[in-house]
Amino acid sequence: MTDRDVFLPVGAQPTLEDLVDQAVTAEELGYDRVWFPETWGRDAVTAMATTAERTDEIGIGTSIANIYSRSPALLGQTAATLQEASDGRFRLGVGPSGPIVIENWHGMDFGNPLRRTRETVEIVQQVLSGQTVSYDGEYFSLDGFRLRCDPPEPAPPVDAAGLGPKAVELAGRFADGWHAVNYTRDGLRERLEDLRRGAELGDRDPNDLRVTLAVGCCALADGERARELVAQHTAFYIGGMGTFYRDNLARQGYEEVAHEIHDLWQEGDKDRATTIVREELRDQMGAAGTPAEAREQLQQFLDIDGLDAVNVSFPRGAEPDEIHETMTALAP
To answer: Whole-model pTM?
Structure first.
């Protein structure tokens, strides 16, 4: 059975207390895991530590912690501490994010994100093993240190996010799972082949990798409002978050649509960009409408072979009561 997770918008909620209350509600509703993103709002670590204290069973993880703002060693230390704080419920998701966040917010050179992701994953895994870390890479060279505290038992899994074929292949080769976002159902199936190829290159069993897909969801009594929120959210990522999501959609057979949405958004015509999302992508991306409509659409993602978890993700414009209504309507 495919797990049903929740992706919480860390920065968009009025208070930290509101955010943690949503995680508590997710546990009460039977969701398997709650994921915390980290961009330029609240930091994910504080939110997860608070959630670990307030919950008992639900899994907790990052989706994603970027690989630039913390050193790999610190990411490993953080993962070890959160595994302890949550009594073994933590899962670390890492990825490069994109130049807009890394260069404009963190002021760092984006460089080669594939190589940096690989090195980060490998170093974090060494840190979590409790052994002395020795690593000589293109970005990081470490030697002579180990965790001063006992390593977590078991060590938390380390997942990698990725969009393009090589990034997904890298996740299959080196990480414990893959985080996918902004995929059509057909596009996801194609990338799953890249994940399997990566696992084979790493002499690993693809069935041991956890594949998590974030799906933009909104289930409201006002179905029209729900559809508009998800369309706006999708258009924002394709049009306003650099070129990575645009290019990812283009690779999935929507090249003309992807570039049109991106160009319109950049020109300031956000309404038209959102309309195109609704007209061209409604049947392939997201689950939105009345509760019955959204549940039916979400089930189409849950039925994808090779997918281990669907991450119910809320549109950035949703109010707290709309998030609660959606979370309740789409609960396992």
So the answer is: 0.95
